Amino acid sequence: MFSESISIALAGLKANKLRAMLTMLGIIIGVGAVIAMVSIGMGVKDKVATSIAGLGSNLLVVTPGASNAGGSRQAAGSSITLNEKDALAISQEISGINLVAPAVTRSYQVVFGNQNWTTSIQGTTPDIQGIRNYSIEEGSFFTNQDVETRARVAVLGKTVAENLFNGGTPIGQTIRINNAPFRVVGVLEAKGESAGGNQDDTVIIPLKTAQERLMGITYIQNINVQATGTDVIYQVQDDITTLLRARHKLAATTPDDFTVRNMVAIMEAADETTSMITSLLAVVAGLSLLVGGIGIMNIMLVSVTERTREIGIRKALGARYQNILLQFLIEAIVISVTGGILGIVLGIGASYGISSVAGWKTVISSLAIVAAFAFSVFIGLFFGIYPARKAALLDPIEALRYE
Amino acid sequence: MSILLSEVTKVYQLGGEQVNALAGITLNISPGEFTAIMGPSGSGKSTLMNILGCLDRPTKGSYMLDGQEVATLNDDQLAITRNKKIGFVFQSFNLLPRMSTLQNVALPMVYAGVEKKERLARAEQVLAMVGLESRMNHQPNELSGGQRQRVAIARALVNDPTIIMADEPTGNLDTKSGDEVMNIFSELNSQGRTIILVTHEPDIAEYAGRVVYVRDGLIERDEWKVR
Ligand SMILES: Nc1ncnc2c1ncn2[C@@H]1O[C@H](COP(=O)(O)OP(=O)(O)OP(=O)(O)O)[C@@H](O)[C@H]1O
Ligand SMILES: [Mg+2]
Prior knowledge:
By secondary structure, chain A is α+β, with helices and mostly antiparallel strands. Chain A has helices at residues 2-14, 17-53, 84-93, 128-132, 144-148, 158-165, 207-215, 230-247, 263-306, 308-316, 321-357, 366-392, 396-401; strands at residues 59-64, 97-112, 115-124, 136-139, 153-156, 174-177, 180-188, 193-194, 197-198, 202-206, 222-227, 258-262.
């Protein structure tokens, strides 16, 4: 009985192939768009999340200067309100902290032999390794001892090592940073892109060496802090603010002369934004699916009207309400399910196409696939039931009279 | 399977106007009878046939079919009755286009729940009875009018109903095809089936053993022929 209805419905669709296909196109595009849009959205989300995570987990960064000083933000590190003692105080007085690494950064030309490369030179302490998840590929990191003795040693990022040494081994070699000689003690493992740009295009040297022997400054430009976990990071952020305000003797009305950036908060905000974009894309795509559903209803209503006489004949020959209902309902569902399956193929294809052409990463979401497919079946049912009922309720005499 | 109509009326509402298509028909048809219904155009013949064929319900009055009051049946029960007990033949054939002759003939069995293999075998058999086994894979628009009507008769027969009803079955046919069709009806009647048909042509009514004349929704005359 059910299989009969299916074959009758299929025959009905075959009689009007082009129309069935065009109607199906609405669903194909709708389902395909939902899957492609969600894949792109998830891809962006994924990319943002990994690039922020690449900066280090549970990371807080303290920089000098107010975060929004009257609309014009001062260039990072241009003010001199932070010093090493601030960093020391943070590590000693605030609980919930794993590691603290004060740092200075400036761009210099680095020379080895006849190769030269301009990169950012970071002066910091060995704790930066744990904070930023640096691992050593070759050699070793410099030590706290090196920081205290202002040793002229350097750890190279992968990009710098490759550009200066062309595959040769850098360990033990002497490079010149702004003409001062430095001995290479280690090379970092590649980390790739992050929110801050290429993390491998850097040279790390001891903090005091950088301050005194290279830059000639006594202040520091940022303090990297790793909290013990996401649960305490907001507390740590508040504590650092309180501590630094006290240390800088700021009056209650004076704004902060430093900024504490909380990477977890930034990540959450970014995550929220990308989730919102993803849902927005999905909703827009979902609307096109809805339009596809209305197309099905439209064509089914036309089909019922056109086939009024056929319905009358079938009823005269003994077709019951449910026979006619199923016949038309199955037609609608066949359109929507076939459209849904083709739409899934299209959506996955489009996701791969976009990721290879635009170079974006796309994450194909099985949830989106299942949801889009289920939605298309539901749409077939929802928009098919009214025309099918209309057909099944036709009076046989009226239907037979229909010209 | 007896047919008992008593005081059956059918009123159509046309705008504000009432049309009394049937004004009180009392009619008794015994199993195995061959009845022709005649009358002028608009007299209510088709309306009467539709009620007899369970395609429509009377406005008032009682229709007992096979001891069952038709007015008490719901739409699905009427459909089952049409499917199992009655074979209907229309003036305009009413075959489904884009379906082969064989599929058209097999269609009532789909709704009777007969299995596909048996359906096709039986449809073939019935098509052979009306002399069209060589046309079973043709579509209706590839057949002549007479052939189409024979297919329609085969379709009416396929569920082995005891009553065959036909509303002007020869109305669209020439004399020769009309006679072929009427010979089939005679043959079916001699097998014991009840035949009721509407016609305008006295020649066609000649095939029947009884002629009921209808005028203005009422029975004017009811004649039995003595053979
Ligand atoms: N659906 C309807 N709505 C309104 N009036 C109708 C309807 N069907 C039939 N009638 C009216 O009922 C009367 C009987 O119609 P019916 O079709 O039974 O006549 P008939 O005897 O079959 O005529 P003909 O010989 O031309 O086929 C006519 O006056 C017709 O206009
Ligand atoms: Mg008529």
